[in-house]
Amino acid sequence: MPRETLPSVAALAGAGAYSGQTGISLDAASALPSFIGWRVAKEKQRIAGHWGMTILFFLAGLLLPGSTASSQDRADEQVLTMEQAVVLAEQNNRMVRNAELDVEKSDERLRETRTHRLPVFDMNVLEAHTLQDFSLTFPAGMFGSFPGFGPFPPLASKVTAQPEWVTFATGGVSQPLTQLYRIHLGIEERTLARAEANEDLRKQQQATAAEVRRAYYEILSIQSAWDATQEEIRLYRELDRLTDSYLLEQAALKSDSLEVKTRLAKAEYRSIVLSNGLSTKKESLNVLLGRDVHMPFRVSDAPEETQFAYDIQAAERLALEQRPEGKAAALKEKEAEYDRRLKKAEYIPDLSLTARHVSNYNILFNPNSVGVAGFYLSWEPFDWGRKKHELAERTRTIEQAANGVNEAESRIVVDVDNCYRKLEEAEALLKVDRLGKEAAGEKLRVVSSKYREQSALLREVLEQQARLADATYEYQQALLGYWTARSEFDRALGEQ
Length: 496
Hints:
Strand order of the largest sheet: 2-7-9-10
Helix content: 55-70%
Strand content: 5-15%
Number of helices: 12
Structural class: alpha+beta
Order of helices and strands: HHHHEHHEEEEEEHHEHHEEHH
Oligomer: single chain
Shape: elongated
Distance between the termini: 48 Å
């Protein structure tokens, strides 16, 4: 490695100097072996070689296995990509499944409404016990007078039946006629309700996918910070051991040792906070994916930004075509129109073709069975204005639904424009932070070169390394912010 990158461990000591940040430059970690060789050469000249060689072998024996163990821990965790997370959520998310069940319920209601067009079969049986004697009186000659016999009955007669069980049985079939128009309107209304449930399903799928993406990027942000903190802790521990050895040789001050220990303790505290936050976010994402809360996984690294080119007017038109909210509002308006037509159809009398059979048992002087066939008409000619007021109410409902369509379209346009602007801001910020990271890296290279030439102080190297760590962290956050804004813009367009 060229000498321009040598004092990186000293620079890494200052990576925790920035307040509230958790990132650290990976360039410093890659420069560590060259620094060790450079530091040992200095120690040979200053201490005659004893402590320098001890530290060299100690660092080389401790750092390399630690890196291998860290890689092994990562290999044990399943890597969950963004696409896999979205697919799992669409398949297993409980709220999406409930929306799918709503669609299935709408299908069943539609099938049920269609059966109303078919003949209606009914059967009724009444088994009852009379509460008192049942008497019939026949006047004399009620049935006429017969030659040679005279009037029948010759005298007034009374026939009494004792209380007993009697049975009435009726059955029939009716085919709706004029009701078919109203049934047809009901089927159309159910069809619209089914389409509306399907749009609600799409809305839930899109909302769940957007929520999964947000949770994924939050995990990615915390995981990146946690990984950087582990590297920071590992390097601080080695720097702490190195500083303690210098302290024994009176080549370092006690304040230097305490400063390193303080930074190590702060990094370990940040690691605990980040680890707890990472566990909570992973559990929340597992809930969204509809799987075991404690399922271990690791998210993949954030991809680099891609070229973004979208015309805002074209985006608005696409969103109005694809967003389920707009389609659901339009369906509600049509559904309100069909509901009004259904109410208006109640003015038409109900006419059915019917055939019925009546049977009775244990009743005096009644036929045991009677069969009839014909037409059955039911009509309410005067309703005190009830239907008129119900029609007026449904007319107001249509107006409300029309307002809902306009409101939904306006909100969609506002949402698209807002997400578009945020995406522009995120893209511009990403460019700024990328340039800042490159500038900080170049400045660190220059300061490190001056430090080797003893024209710069160690403090300057530490400060510049802290600035590079800041710039690296800010770039990573800007990259995650860009992809979050990109996913929000896709959601605003109605993309799955």
